[in-house]
Amino acid sequence: MAFFIGIDVGSGWTKAVVSKDNEIKSYAIVPSGGDYNKAARDACEIALKKIDISTKDIKYTVATGYGATMADFAQDTASDISCHAKGISALFPHVRTVIDIGAQFTRAIRIDEDGRIINFIMNEKCAGGSGKFLQVTARILRVDIEELGSLSLKSKNPVEFTTACAVFAESEAISRISEGARPEDIVAGIHRAMASKIITLAARVGMTPNYAITGGGAKDTGLVKALENELKFKTFVPDEPQITAAFGAAILAGSR
Amino acid sequence: MKRYFAGVDIGSTMTKVVIFSGIIEATIIGPTGPEHRKLANKVMEEALNLAHIRFEDLSYIIATGYGRINVPFADRQITEITCHAKGLHSLLPTVKTIVDIGGQDSKAIKIKDGKVVSFVMNDKCAAGTGRFIEIMADTLEVPLEDMGRLSLTAQKAASISSTCTVFAEHEIINKLASKETIPNLIAGIHESVATRVSAMVKKLTIEEDVAITGGGAKNIGLVKALEKKLGCPVVVPPEPLITGALGASVLAKEIFEKYEREGQIPARSSCGLQEAKIFS
């Protein structure tokens, strides 16, 4: 029985995918915390347990992401950009642009019809428009991050944010709250500010109609809606958008 | 009879009031925090108590800073750049370049005879502002006021490669996990801010003396790091937080006296010492 594992050690979450014949058989998502190696081991253990197999059944493991090198049990590592490209082409073969919205990093990747990378860009210098905005917003509004999407969709009058800095957006949101702005309008305003920043980033690799959004940010329906409103195209979102790169890593593991 | 003037500086983190009569009669510094923003009147009351005068004894009041627009009892609003220049010049007349590191922005001002010649400002990105240091102090669980002292015991400043506050915070957590010492990390944090600030200051031609004001001036480690990056000594005024409010109070006196010389009475705000309105 040939199973493969892909692990994506992200700055916020660690994802493990167990695959067989290039199909997702099981997965797990755990917080990365401070010990990336432990997070990677935990994620694998949970994913294996779900389908009742053990490490003995695993033929090859590839790690990717921010803390890939920390997962000491993986046989190999691969860049997160190539894993994303692999993962998304397996899920949506027609997609040519992927926007990945992670906890800290946002990436835009252009791929050709064979899933090869044409170009990519990442917000290495500035967290403006990254998932950090969502964490900060959830914290100051005292709601779960999962609730932001449905809250945002209720907004009739989104707050206009003047800053693109994640740190200053927090103080601006607090000011607006103290002035009596409604939580849904704050969230919708944050989603708009993020969407505009993300689209500016993605425009630098060239946007195409068939695009997908992955990463934790793709789970936020309010953000996806804000992006669709700006881009005027339907967005493809995987069933579990957070595991796209881990799935790509598992596919790479299978080919080694 | 002595005449009293007031300057109110509402910054993003601190509200400062100075009562001035030709000499500084009272200075009060209180937090601006979200729920305190409306309470500029409370800080003013404290300053009045300290100076042993009543609100009615003030001849003219000028508000400055980020929240200056919403101080109903102020007679006039003047930008913080002008007030900083004025206030600093009244304390340290030899200074030609002011670097102000505040809670939410940083700026550099060139002055001549107490007037602004040119200035540059960063309020777009938290890196290179006091906020960066505040966030890192929280991350390291070190009280903000201990950051300066601790950094002086560093063996070697840790190198922090990220500019963005969010990324740098992550970098510091990782470095902490790999057993980098707290003093080395703090020294690295100060270097990072000093690098950003000095790049901004160098957009102006630096002329000595150089002074530093704002909350950043209270951090000896940051001052030392900035001296190194700028390549010249930096003077710290006795109370670096009040230069804006002081300048506002000095300007209040000058403006009032100018009206008086011309035989006029300046228009006053009709509001008494009431709560400031919520910020726009």
Report on the architecture of this protein.
- The complex is a heterodimer of chains A (256) and B (280).
- The two termini of chain A are 16 Å apart.
- Chain A contains 8 helices and 10 strands.
- In chain A, helix 7 links the parallel strand 9 (211-214) and strand 10.
- In chain A, strands 3-2-1-4-5 form a 5-stranded mixed sheet. A 5-stranded mixed sheet of chain A has the order 8-7-6-9-10, with helices on both faces.
- With 256 residues, chain A is an alpha/beta fold.
- Chain B folds into 2 domains: 4-83 and 242-261, ATPase, nucleotide binding domain (Nucleotidyltransferase, domain 5, 2-Layer Sandwich), CATH 3.30.420.40; 94-235, Nucleotidyltransferase, domain 5.
- Chain B has 8 helices and 10 strands.
- In chain B, the strands form 2 sheets. In chain B, strands 3-2-1-4-5 form a 5-stranded mixed sheet. A 5-stranded mixed sheet of chain B has the order 8-7-6-9-10.
- In chain B, helix 2 (80-91) crosses helix 8 (243-261).
- Chains A and B meet through helix 5 of A and helix 3 and helix 5 of B.
Topology of this protein?
The complex is a heterodimer of chains A (256) and B (280).
Chain A: E1 3-9, E2 13-20, E3 23-31, H1 36-50, E4 58-64, E5 76-77, H2 80-91, E6 97-101, E7 106-111, E8 117-122, H3 132-141, H4 148-153, H5 166-178, H6 183-203, E9 211-214, H7 221-231, E10 235-236, H8 244-254
Parallel strand pairs in A: 1-4, 4-5, 6-9, 9-10
Antiparallel strand pairs in A: 1-2, 2-3, 6-7, 7-8
Chain B: E1 4-10, E2 14-20, E3 24-31, H1 40-51, E4 58-64, E5 76-77, H2 80-91, E6 97-101, E7 106-112, E8 115-122, H3 130-140, H4 147-151, H5 165-177, H6 182-201, E9 210-213, H7 220-230, E10 234-235, H8 243-261
Parallel strand pairs in B: 1-4, 4-5, 6-9, 9-10
Antiparallel strand pairs in B: 1-2, 2-3, 6-7, 7-8
Helix pairs in contact in B: 2-8, 3-5, 3-6, 6-7
